[in-house]
Amino acid sequence: MAVTDQAAASSARLDATKMRKIASASVIGTTVEWYDLFLFGTASALVFNEVFFPDVPPAVGTILAFLTFASAYLARIIGAIAFGHFGDRIGRKSMLLISLITMGVATLGIGLIPDANTIGLAAPFLLLGLRVVQGLALGGEWGGAVLMTVEHAPAHRRGWYGSLVQVGVPAGTLIANLVFLIVTSAVDREALLTWGWRVPFIASIVLVAVGIYIRLNIEETPSFQQVREQGAKAKLPFAYLMKKYWKQVILGGVATLSTGSTFTLLVASGVSYGTSEQGHSDSVMLWAVLIACIIALVGIPFFGRLSDRIGRKKIIAAGIAGEVLLAFPFFWLIDTGTIWGVFLAYSLMMLAFSANYGPIATFLAELFGSKIRYSGLSVAYMLSGLLGSAITPAITVWLLTLTGQSSSIAWYVGLAALVSLVALWLLAENRLVSIDTVDSRQVDPGADVAPAESGVDDRGRATTEHGGSVTVQA
After folding, report:
1. Domain count across the chain
2. CATH number of the domain that residue 61 is part of
3. Once rounded to an integer, what is the mean pLDDT over residues 168-174?
4. Could you write out the three-class secondary structure of the chain?
5. What residues make up the domain containing 88?
6. What is the pLDDT of residues 380-399, one digit of tens each?
7. Widest Cα–Cα separation across the chain
């Protein structure tokens, strides 16, 4: 890559006001998308088994509701490939707008579906179809939002800005559960099953409108502009990705697996377990999720910023280790039957999750060259969702039904985290590599060493950046 090209790309990152605007747009957009997605998870745990699967035993109905929940994850892979193709060919911004609109329409549609008592088998099939559309939208949303911040960010703050996008997960979950908490507190069970559960889905259209308005006013990333100017676009990004980066895709997906299994445990499986097995009220479990999400709102950017100083892999590995160590205590605390036990279990596990999840978006983005980064980042992350988030709710209900012991779920969560730890170890730390490198990234684990990154400062002077330090040349 020419030094002049690097300088031009680096100069586009110097405006702090622009970075705040871009980061805000990404956070709000991902918050809306995750609100819509996890709204479905909460509803699956609390009401969908009765609304859409009323003629089967409660445990079977819950499994069917969670399998419908899981259907989006296969669609996310397809969405990641499709949106990644056009994101690497056309640009990041346009794909972000399309994905947000698609998600909004699907979520509104879910809120308007008649229940099974009204239209019979058509109801769960409509639910499944709209859930798949949600998955397609999220498959393109997350990767584009991450790249909007990471590819604009200064090299020594990529972890911080990338983690801000990750805040959309707890923020969206927080809003989704807060809305559900208000609804469940305001209406009785019969009203909740009849019309109350629809309110959070229909209300999402307001958040979508805000997200679209903000995203209309952001610019394309310097990295993609450079790819476009150099004529370096891949003709078929996914084919090129799987030819040159297949190891990064697979290992990246497996390394991220535990974020999905752990978070889904907290927002779906844990809620279902606490209400059905330990007799906690819906409100207690929703409050536990809310408190945990508040912790994540602080923890995720903290660990993202820390990863800029000491490395992504160290922080992520510490988070995964925490998930392993807390797998059994999480259920022991819930099994005490006390409210404080539930709150403590959720708070500790969410802290470990935050360390794992905060730096992972930037870490994955740095595995791929800018030529196919949208595709690579999106497919790797959505693969992790398919391996972790998608199957966790159904497996945990099945394990609990089979064994009657919460320890079976703890074993599952702990083993998933150990598998992620092994895959993480096999990947390289690329935080010091220029984000504007068009092609070629390491796969094998190695030292945190990379070429210096050249650019210009706000006075037009040449600079050479080594991680967090910048040398200015007179």
Report:
1. 1
2. 1.20.1250.20
3. 88
4. CCHHHHHHHHHCCCCHHHHHHHHHHHHHHHHHHHHHHHHHHHHHHHCHHHHCCCCCCHHHHHHHHHHHHHHHHHHHHHHHHHHHHHHHHCCHHHHHHHHHHHHHHHHHHHHHCCCHHHHCCHHHHHHHHHHHHHHHHHHHHHHHHHHHHHCCCCHHHHHHHHHHHHCHHHHHHHHHHHHHHHHHHHCCHHHHHHHHCHHHHHHHHHHHHHHHHHHCCCCCCHHHHHHHHHCCCCCCHHHHHHHHCHHHHHHHHHHCHHHHHHHHHHHHHHHHHHHHCCCCCHHHHHHHHHHHHHHHHHHHHHHHHHHHHHCHHHHHHHHHHHHHHHHHHHHHHHCCCCHHHHHHHHHHHHHHHHHHHCCHHHHHHCCCCCCCHHHHHHHHHHHHHHHCCCCHHHHHHHHHHHHCCHHHHHHHHHHHHHHHHHHHHCCCCCCCCCCCCCCCCCCCCCCCCCCCEEEECCCCCEEEEECCEEEECC
5. 3-472
6. 999 998 888 777 877 887 88
7. 77
pLDDT at 345 over 80: yes
Using one digit for the tens of pLDDT, what is the confidence trace for 281-308?
878 888 898 899 999 999 999 999 999 9
Query: What is the gyration radius of the CA atoms in the chain, in angstroms?
Result: 22
Q: How far apart are CA 222 and CA 210, in angstroms?
A: 25
Looking at mean pLDDT, say which of 1-5, 351-355, 393-397 comes out highest.
Answer: 351-355
Q: How many CB atoms lie within 10 A of CB 229?
A: 11
Which among 79, 94, 78, 7 is positioned nearest to 452, based on CA atoms? 7
- Closest by Cα among 160, 225, 73 to 362: 160
Contact 36, 169 (CB under 8 A): no
Task: List, in order, residues 6 or more apart from 317 with CB less than 8 Å away.
Answer: 421, 424, 425
406-425 vs 312-334: helix crossing angle, rounded to 10: 180
